[in-house]
Amino acid sequence: VTAVYVALLAPALAALVGILIGRLRPRLVVPTAVAGTSVSLAATVVLATRAVTTDGLLEQASLDTVPLGGGLTFGIDLRLDGLAALVSVAVTVVALAVQVYSTAYLKGDPRYSSYAAFVSLFTAAMLLVVFSDDLFVLLVGWEVMGVCSYFLIGHHWEQEGSRAGAVKALITTRLGDVGFLFGIFVLGHAFGTFSIGGIVTHAAELNGRLVSDGLVLAVPQHTVTVATLLLLCGVVGKSAQFPLHTWLPDAMAGPTPISALIHAATMVAAGIYFVVRLYDVFLLSPTTLAVMAVIACITMLGAALAALAQDDIKRVLAYSTVSQLAYMLAALAVGSALASTFHLLTHAAFKALLFLAAGSVIHAVGTNLMPDMGGLRRLMPVTFATMTIGLAALAGLPPFSGFFSKEAVLGAAEETAMHHDGPAAAWTGWLVLVVGLVTVAVTAAYVTRLWLMTFFGQPRGRVAGHEPPAAMRWPLVVLAVPATLLGLVGLPSGWLPEWLAPVPVTTGQDVAQVELHLNLFTSGLSLVLALAGAAAVWRVWRRDPASDPSLALGRRRGALAHAFYVDDFYDRALVQPVRLATRSVRRTDDEVVLGAVLGTGRGARWLSGAIARTQGGNITTYLTGLLAGVLLIVAGVVVLT
Amino acid sequence: MSDWLLPLLLVVPAVGALALLLLPGAAAERLAVRLGVVVSTATLAVSVWAVAASPETDVEWVPELGLRFHLGIDGISSPLVLLTAFLTLLSMVYLLRIRPEAQRMRALVGLLLLLEVGMLGTFVALDLLLFFVFFEVVLVPMWFVIAQWGDDKVPGGRVRAANVFILYTVLGSAVMLLGILLVGLTAGTFDIVELTSRAGAGMSHRTQVLAFLALALGLAVKTPMWPLHSWLPDAHTAAPTVGSVLLAGVLLKMGTYGLIRIAVPLVPDGAQTLAPFLGALAVVGILYGSLACLAQRDLKRLIAFSSVGHMGFVLLGISTLTATGINGALYANVAHGLITGLLFFLAGAIKDRHHTADLDLLGGGLYERMPRLGGLLAFGAVASLGLPGLAGFWGEMLVLLGAFDPAPGLSRPYYLVLMVLAGVGVVLTTTYFVMVVRRVAQGTSFQAWKDAVLLRDATTHELVVWSPVVVLVVAFGLWPSWLLQATDPVVRRLLGSS
Predict the structure, then answer these.
(1) Do B388 and A143 count as a contact with CB atoms less than 8 A apart?
(2) ipTM (interface predicted TM)
(3) Which of these, B290, B128, B252, B136, lies nearest to B195 by C-alpha position?
(4) What tens digit of pLDDT does each residue of A594-622 get?
(5) Cα(B17)–Cα(B144) distance, rounded to whole angstroms?
(6) N or C: which end of chain B has fewer CB within 10 A?
(7) Contact B484 A68 (CB under 8 A)
(8) How would DSSP label each residue in B264-280?
(9) Residue among A19, A138, A187, A626 with most chain B CBs within 10 A, to mutate
């Protein structure tokens, strides 16, 4: 457990030191931040090696028990298992890559010390989510992440976009988190504990995955459904799923390395991680699984279509993140936490890579807009090569990592659709399968558009591109390795199920028998669809390499570019009514309540006038009146007793 | 037993105030604040000792009235006693360098020490009439602090703000006194411990309802509960920085403390009947307060209104009549005292520098021209919106958890509705605090502020005063059992008797 403490405390300490000494010793800022994250990475690697040698390892530490009143308690508890170890390594690898990358990307930034400190604090908070064994402890990490995200999106607070994006991100996720908190209440109440381990064990006994040695207390179905749906609110907010997805594209106003770390690889995946953590509970409610499937399908396809028409390279990637997170949610909806986790890990690698590569492009050409890029292939060969790997993984082309993990998701959906034997309904399997396949084609299309508009054709920008400095180049190269290989390594050896042993990897099956397998039919179909999507864009582009292929969409392009006007709808349905309520409260307080006060004031003047007549006093008659009152009271007590 | 310890706790600041009165004018004026620091340090030391020893004093005072000088300290009063002594000390240290324009430090320090006597007395009193006396003692110095050292530019002027404050609270107190007399005379004793152990036995339901109504109304004015809150924004806006800090940090807590210590345990049947009303008004306060905050144009007024919302959470917690909810109320009390105390320090510092707290006149760019002050303001805002991991969260969470499962006899669906509405309040609270940060801290400065040479960032002296608060906010956020271990047994005892 010591290594868990080290992993948690090193970045937290780095954040604290960074805040305290930032202004006094600017030269120590970078070493502090990098050292904190490196130590954390080392610790998580130690944990991972231990987790792999100790089968299905479970280590728990209870630091404190907090009374909540009425006999309720919660524990400041940590847990370590294969899932936590694996995700923690992914988090710290990306965090370290981002810390190193940022030293060059934000070189000379006057507020680098607070930036680096928030990144460190974020890392610690994410690791707290990963290692926590109690819902409230998890919530602490969950929300601290959110507020770090808020501050980091607002890093360039001189710009209106950053300010608005930061506010939107925080408020939207808090909206989901209120539901999440209530979900914790319902869950804790139903299971009699807030301990994740306790709840999951109980739930596993209820759904028959674990054999209990005693009597298992039944939990009503509808209670579990209510609890999981409420928890899903928080998940949907954090993981930017419909209908709370709109904050993520706006969060792109933050510095690009932040987008890579927080808004692609880690924080947004925390929602998925949470469901995996409590998967036994979610499996108890087919209703919730069905809701998850519907949300995932709407988000998956909708976000992919929106990505097709964005001009800002980061917004393309943001919508693609939303869409890929929906794949993970869809995998959970059709009963495969394994496929979901697999996709979470490969996505962390290739999407972090993509954002950092996009940052490298933005750094070079000084704009986010793809219409102003073009022809960067020769000028930036390293960026081009690594980004191509990332895009291939995103599009799901073999042998890159994304292919395998996406196939695992589609395979799970096919399994549910054809041989329905878990709690997920067969129709959800069909839904995920069909929408997932369509999304594959759309994904390939927007990936191709991004690739062609950025790297091919004639340069359209004013600044000629150039390779970034080494501190930015190396993280790209390092991340390209897992983006390429994670799928290949992960799949055949079957190590992933073993790692995730405490998690129910798929439903209704014995852990040992589970392995990820490629379904030849869906794999072949999705590959054909991906190639078709890519080819369609390529054909449009070839006609005029200087123009935007998405113009071929015609009038429909507007709806896609505005992401189906969801934001405008929220503005009318939510923001304006709140403004109205605000105005009316102000009027009430100014006129009605203040009027009442003035009325009292008049009464007071009258009263003080009355007293003044007898005592000839001024404003201090109030005090006299008070003392007189007290005396009167005492006299009254004497008389009455 | 060291039964002189609690009287000593009250005597130390009282003697300090007296000394300032007796010392010759010029010398006292010069030494006043330093003496204040010494006295309030001594008071803090005694309060720490008292909390550690948890002594009790019970002597006859005015036997003809059955009035006893009964003082005691336990898990629910000790956090507030420490908070009082702590914030008073910080205010004194703050005054060492930063003084209100009206000067006259001898009088100000003397009044603040007198204020401390009243606040501490309220929290340790175990006799109803004694509680009332201390409750009232607080008013006089606070009236002077607002009326004499306040900001006269507020609409209506500082004297009017002070008058409205005292008018509301005195009227409230009169009603509360009726409740106290009703309870005391019906039961034949004013001893809180004795009355708590009886838990309303021997009082008819109607008497209990009446008594609770009277007590709660009086205490709710101080809290303040919507719609009795309208004295608060004016008083806070007008009060000098230290006045606002103590007003928000401690004075408001006297009301909710009274509800927990007296109203709920002494007349439990009355509480049971009226709790749903209390809960409803609490939730209205949460929503109304946060919407009002969204509309405010003045920073100090905004923080004042945020108190209406936060104290709404405290009241909601009490209205659940559960150990969880009341623990939450006590936690939120302490957290609000620290966080809002800090916010008023910061707002005061901003106002002193710019000679305005008007959001439009201030404009943005505090991060830019005063990064330390801006950063602290952001910290205060984040703490106040209830970020888990900082002190503000646990109180709100426990209150909501209490409302999720209210005491038997209260309607569960009704409280679930209240819980959800309070949850909406959480989101609105987040909204107005990020709006404050956006309007004040982010963005770029007005040219006038850039040109002003005298605009300094937070000084070392200010940081010395504020950093202990920041540390405590983080500590209470990361280690909630610190406080809950202390309050939980006492709260259960208070409720268990019912």
Answers:
(1) yes
(2) 0.92
(3) B128
(4) 555 555 555 555 555 554 444 433 444 44
(5) 14
(6) N
(7) yes
(8) HHHSHHHHHHHHHHHHH
(9) A626
